[in-house]
Amino acid sequence: MTGVEEVAVAPIALQRLEPLLTPERVERLETYVAVARRLLEGRTVWNLNSTARGGGVAEMLHTLVAYAAGTGVDIRWLVVGGDPDFFAVTKRLHNRLHGVPGDAGALDAAARATYDATLARHRGQVLEHVRPGDVVLLHDPQTAGLAQALRDRGAFVVWRCHVGLDDHNAWTREAWGFLRELVEPAQACIFSRESFAPDWVDRRWLRVIPPSLDPFSPKNIDLDAAEVDRLVHREGLVVEGSPLPRDGRVVLQVSRWDRLKDMAGVLDAFAGHLDELPPDVHLVLAGPEATGVADDPEAAEVLAECRALWRALPTRARDRSHLVSVPMDDLDDNARTVNALQRWATVVVQKSLAEGFGLTVTEPMWKGRPVVASAVGGILDQVEDGVSGLLLRDPRDGAELAGALSSLLADAGRREEMGRAAHERVRDHYLADRHLIQYVELFAQLMGEV
Ligand code: UDP
Q1: Which of 28, 269, 304, 340 has the greatest CB tally within 10 Å of its CB?
Q2: How far is the CA of 1 from the centre of ligand 1 (A)?
């Protein structure tokens, strides 16, 4: 996809959430919906990002846009595409915002020219849609370069950054140096954690808004045991390893094939500590079909590395580990399969080396699964260590992961209790009502109402 395309999203009535909320929450939400309808009368809210499928931003937009549209607000979603050179630069930015180099390339004038050339091609088309007084939410570095033109158009422009690192380093500073001029025309910036923001972001217009999940989407809806079984054991999912086990327990990590998710590190830790884990336990690493995520150019390479690592393992480790590639041609089907894998797993891992906010942590928590996740970035807010999951102090330490897994696998009561707490944590903090209310608060401030 190299042009600008609108993603059609069918509205969903917010009432669907009500059974999950306290009466106070329902009332508060209704108040804010009324404010939103009034503030946004005659305006359109635009979301711009760079892929309609794969990854947390697309996942979130599908449901949040649907709920917002269900309130009668005019909200729309445009995907601004790019060519491989553009995505090489934006993936470099993504990696460096997470504190690692990614590739060997520079974020120099040539990279900036590549970046600008792609957005310059799309600017006209985007501006045809947006009218003065509209609200535009630009997501991530891929769309930041549209901020100035949209401001000039007379829109309210908000840049939302879904990535970041708590302790900035030379790589993050380089990436922020590249982005500063692009982002500054936006009136407000949204981060998943305050510590992710560089110091030049105006604190009066910085908002911390973490993502949310939708309990009724195909990714999270309840599935009965027969459906879980059918989805997990269907043909063609496993790309390395024997068919997924019908007996025995499963430790799962679901992620894009991105080095910062450290799928290879999970496999390495599992294989290296096999004897410390109960003999019935298998590892499943699942990610999207490698060509399925448009703005993620490293996926094929990372999957290939994991496959090579798997092939080099001793037979006994290979017999108990499985690499899964979930087809991306049908998004609902992809979501239901991930849903089934998360429900089927005994423990879910997210051994990320950096993480803005991990929906792959929140999703299994909603399903009452105990999670073991790295104590990095947004995950620190998502999981209360020892209560709603276990946090890994050093995400690179395979022994720590193995220790956490073996202690959880040995204690069914603890897993159940943790799963219950995890579900409650998501209900209390990470559903759409909180998220939409935070947006309305920001819009009211932008429009000078508060
Ligand atoms: N995901 C998916 N299919 C896959 C792998 C991942 O739908 O094969 C989804 C996953 O369920 C989650 C999202 O992609 O909803 C990843 O979001 P997260 O915030 O964890 O990380 P990101 O990919 O945005 O870095």
Answers
A1: 269
A2: 20
- Residue 289 CA: nearest ligand 1 atom is 8
270 in Cβ contact with 317 (< 8 Å): yes
How much is the pLDDT for 295? Answer: 77
369 burial type by CB count under 10 A (0-12 exposed, 13-18 middle, 19+ buried): buried
- How do strand 371-374 and strand 45-49 relate by DSSP bridges? unpaired
Mean pLDDT over residues 108-113, rounded? 98
Judged against a pLDDT cut of 90, whether residue 296 lies above it is answered with: no
> What's the pLDDT band for 41 if we cut at 50, 70, 90?
very high
Residue 227 structure tokens: 């459906």
Alpha carbon of 155 to ligand 1 centroid (Å): 31
- What is the dihedral angle through the alpha carbons of 206, 208, 214, 219, rounded to the nearest 10 degrees? 100
* CB 99 less than 6 A from any atom of ligand 1: no
pTM above 0.90, yes or no: yes
Q: Which residue CA neighbors atom 3 of ligand 1 most closely? A: 288
Tokens 């504190």 map to which residue?
Answer: 99
CA-proximal residue: ligand 1, atom 14 (nearest): 55
Non-local (6+) Cβ contacts of 297 within 8 A are 84, 87, 88, 91
Tokens 């050339």 belong to residue: 117
**Residues 129-183 pLDDT 10s:** 999 999 999 999 999 999 999 999 999 999 999 999 999 999 999 999 999 999 9
Regarding the beta carbon of 214 and ligand 1, being less than 6 Å apart is answered no
298 touches ligand 1 (CB under 6 Å): no
Classify 351 as helix, strand or coil.
coil
Please report the pLDDT score of residue 291 as a whole number.
79
Q: Which domains does the chain have, with CATH numbers?
A: 4-212+431-446 (3.40.50.2000), 225-429 (3.40.50.2000)
What are the helix (H) ranges across 184-330?
225-232, 263-272, 299-311, 315-318
User: Is there a contact between 131 and 150 (Cβ–Cβ < 8 Å)?
Assistant: no
Tell me the Cα Rg of the chain: 22
Q: Is 215 in the pocket of ligand 1 (CB under 6 A)?
A: no
**Beta bridge mates, 394:** none
Q: How far apart are CA 126 and CA 145, in angstroms?
A: 12
DSSP β-ladder status, 347-350 and 321-326: unpaired
Query: What is the pLDDT confidence band of residue 374, given thresholds at 50, 70 and 90?
Result: very high
The finding on whether 342 has its CB within 6 A of some atom of ligand 1 is: no
CB-based burial of residue 59 (10 Å sphere; 0-12 exposed, 13-18 middle, 19+ buried)?
Answer: buried
